[in-house]
Amino acid sequence: MATMSGEADILALALAGENVDKVRSCGICLQFLKEHCQRTKEYGYHSNIILAGRRINDDMGRYIAEHTIKCMVNSGMRVKKSTVAILGVTFKENCSDVRNSKVFDIVHELKEYSVEVVIVDPIADPNEVYRLYGFHLATLEEIEKVSAVVIAVTHKAFGRISRADFDKMYCTDSKILIDVKGIMVPIYANRF
After folding, report:
1. Higher local confidence (pLDDT), 13 or 45
2. What are phi and psi of 136, to 5 degrees?
3. Residue 182 φ then ψ, to 5°
4. Is residue 13 very low, low, confident or very high in pLDDT (cuts 50, 70, 90)?
């Protein structure tokens, strides 16, 4: 019997839930996963680990949006009608697939606070994003006068954004950068 190892396997298992076919590319031994899910169903057992992982994943968009709003409020910014830039909307970094992307949860949550959202993703297909989610994509050069920037996906292109380019994006001296995956930490750790 195969065993799971690493955070990616646990996350993929949590995301799989009832639909094991969704994790084909995650490197998990599918036979083990199918057998595990089948056995737990036969015995009427619902794994709390899987359910907890799914809840955490489902709530992450709300958490990131609320954290962004709290940072804006704590900086004295007006939230309603402010603009937030979201960098990256694909399912994972350096991949053009936008299906099942949780980034749109962040967008929807921010819109609940009457925040204007500008979305940038140099890898995603703009037509596919519009077809699936109804949003238009902007370019990095079009980002200006934003209150906050959320780096949601760690595309290599975003790691090359200079401090000066970031500074041009903001409308105030208070620069809020929410770096979800930590792509900017090594570069800007002591600069913001």
Report:
1. 45
2. -90, 145
3. 80, 25
4. very low
List C-alpha distances in Å: 184 to 113, 135, 149, 152, 179.
Answer: 26, 26, 12, 12, 7
Neighbouring-strand partners of residue 32 = none
As a three-state string, the secondary structure of the chain is: CCCCCHHHHHHHHHHHCCCHHHHHHHCCCHHHHHHHHHHHHHCCCCCHHHHHHHHHHHHHHHHHHHHHHHHHHHCCCCCCCCEEEEECCCCCCCCCCCCCCCHHHHHHHHHHCCCEEEEECCCCCHHHHHHHHCCCEECHHHCCCECEEEECCCCHHHHCCCHHHHHHHECCCCCEEEECCCCCHHHHCCCC
- 83-87 sheet: strands from edge to edge: 137-138, 116-120, 83-87, 148-151, 176-179
Distance CA 175, CA 80 (A): 17
Q: What is the mean pLDDT of the chain?
A: 78
pLDDT at 159: 83
CATH number for region 59-188:
3.40.50.720
Residue 41's pLDDT band (cuts 50, 70, 90): low
